[in-house]
Amino acid sequence: MEQDDPQRIVEAVLFASSKPLRMAEIEAASQLSDDVIRRALARLKKENEERGSAIEVVKIGIRYSMQLRKEYTGYGMPFAEVEVPKEVLKTAAYVAYNQPIRQSELVEALGSEVYEHVRVLRSAGLISVKKQGQTLLLSTSKKFPEYFGIPSSRKEDIKRWMESQVSR
């Protein structure tokens, strides 16, 4: 295998990144053209599918990433660093499913620990807030679908994706 094989260069960039990357970020890191990167991504995706790899190349919105296939996440998750504490994920899911939602409604539904959860989610950049009277109106941010591997940032698509995960 060639040391400067575009497919392997793109694979290395995606593998090393802790977040999904825009095409411009892959270009800057690899010094490859847009067309070369797109071909390398397609070949890499096909190669992983053909060999039944536990890793897949995905497009999330306008960004690209390597991630574990759903059926293998249970094996990899014990070793993955979790940025959002598990107890906060319930609040994140509730906001995503019911967005936009007033923080006061969230507290009513889930309890007062929600105030701390909202602080954590805001600092992680996963939710956005707008002042609405005496409370805050909460919605998912653009980072939310990227973080969870949801292929769209539209509220309806996020809700549909969440429903599909429950039915699995």
Question: Top keywords for this entry?
Answer:
Arc Repressor Mutant, subunit A; 9 helices; alpha+beta; 168 residues; three-stranded antiparallel β-sheet
What does this entry look like structurally?
This protein is α+β, with helices and mostly antiparallel strands. It folds into two domains: 6-77, Orthogonal Bundle (Arc Repressor Mutant, subunit A), CATH 1.10.10.10; 86-166, Arc Repressor Mutant, subunit A (Orthogonal Bundle), CATH 1.10.10. The chain has nine helices and six strands; from the N terminus they run αβααββααβααββαα. It has helices at residues 6-16, 23-30, 34-50, 73-76, 86-98, 103-110, 114-123, 143-148, 155-166, and strands spanning 21-22, 55-60, 63-68, 101-102, 127-132, 135-140. A three-stranded antiparallel sheet has the order 1-3-2. It has a three-stranded antiparallel sheet with strand order 4-6-5. α1 (6-16) packs across α3. The protein starts with 5 loop residues before the first helix and ends with a helix.
Which CATH-level-2 architecture of the largest domain? Orthogonal Bundle
In the CATH hierarchy, what is the class of the largest domain?
Answer: Mainly Alpha
Helix content: 40-55%
Kindly identify the CATH topology of the largest domain. Answer: Arc Repressor Mutant, subunit A
Shape type: elongated
Q: How many β-strand stretches?
A: 6
State the domain count. 2
Give a quick account of the main beta sheet: strands, pairing sense, barrel closure.
Answer: 3 strands, antiparallel
**H and E order:** HEHHEEHHEHHEEHH
Q: First CA to last CA: what distance? A: 39 Å
Number of helices: 9
Supply the CATH superfamily name of the largest domain. Winged helix-like DNA-binding domain superfamily/Winged helix DNA-binding domain
Mean pLDDT: 89
Structural class: alpha+beta
Indicate the proportion of strand residues: 15-25%
Strand order across the biggest sheet? 1-3-2
